[in-house]
Amino acid sequence: MNYDTASPVTGAYPDEPRLALLTAAEARETVELLQRLERFDSGGRGPSAGQLAADLARRLPAP
Questions:
Q1: What is the mean pLDDT of residues 12-33?
Q2: What is the distance between the alpha carbons of residues 58 and 35, in angstroms, rounded to a whole number?
Q3: 0.70 cut: is pTM over it?
Q4: SS3 at position 39
Q5: Is 56 within 8 Å of 31 (Cβ atoms)?
Q6: Rounded CA gap, 23 and 3, in Å?
């Protein structure tokens, strides 16, 4: 893909506050599910799921 970095990005953005993509509770549940996938997936995706879970968990605020 070619991107023109010389042109500024233009657009209209809403004034109302944006919602988070995930709530903290949803993110914690996602970490738990990824950790389960790490333990039980014999198809080779387990280590990747574990790494993603660890990366996400580091970004979460303490409960």
A1: 85
A2: 14
A3: no
A4: helix
A5: yes
A6: 33
